[in-house]
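Design review, sub-item: ligand-bound model
Attendees: FS, YL, KQ
YL presented the inputs for the nicotinamide-adenine-dinucleotide complex:
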Amino acid sequence: MKICFLGAGSSVFAKNILGDCILTPSLEDFHISLHDINEKRLDESYRLVSMLNKNLNGRATITEHLDRREALEGADFIVNAIQVGGYKPCTVTDFRVPAKYGLKQTIGDTLGIGGIMRGLRTFPVLRDFADDIEAVCPDALFLNYTNPMAMLTGYLLKYTKVKTVGLCHSVQACVPTSSIPRYGRQARRRKVGYLRNKSSGVARLRPRQGRQGSVSRSQGALFERRRPLERQSEAGDHEDLRLLRDGVFGT
Ligand SMILES: NC(=O)c1ccc[n+]([C@@H]2O[C@H](COP(=O)([O-])OP(=O)(O)OC[C@H]3O[C@@H](n4cnc5c(N)ncnc54)[C@H](O)[C@@H]3O)[C@@H](O)[C@H]2O)c1
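KQ shared the predicted structure:
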């Protein structure tokens, strides 16, 4: 299995998402190809992910590529965590120009004028991604974390042939902890799922008192001693993603 990471210079996403993959037994022997347009950031993430793989006794093969098509060749899954234009100048401009006209924003990357501007500068880049994907890995599932997440996912689903799902990396931990007090039986079922993750010994996901925060599995892995891989849960999150791909897209 091959996972291609676009925007691998986003070291936070590379560490969290790929760290979780490395900790998932069903993905032990997979190939991770990292791509970014920024050589320095790409190399830093390559060293970070390689170190995680080594320290977690992972068996992944990790490669880095400045050439996007080369990175995508034969991929089964593609993770997208790019930020077109970066914090400076683009995110700063998204705030300063509306502020000049009295429009205040909080994050400005999802909806509203900031989200729209982000979307407009990212659509053409996704069009280029889609051309490459349609050519070298047409069956791959595109996991989009890039904001504005909903607009970009909608664009890919409507205007390209790329099989796409929009994701947030915290949802799988946040939803069960935040919904338990509210919904009766459904919440109890979710709690079981939550405990199952916890019992894997990898995550040690604990709801923080009074907060909806979460600790990703790879964050746990960096700071806590874990059980050996063979004692972890057999059902990995990414196995669920494979089922999702096959179920939703009928491949
Ligand atoms: N869905 C979520 O849960 C969630 C949460 C937080 C952030 N995000 C989004 O994730 C993305 C990454 O956030 P970050 O703060 O880590 O960004 P970052 O700026 O640290 O990293 C983004 C990387 O993308 C690279 N990049 C830019 N254009 C590219 C291109 N055309 N091809 C390949 N690489 C390219 C940059 O060089 C950089 O290394 C952003 O879009 C952000 O809004 C999503």
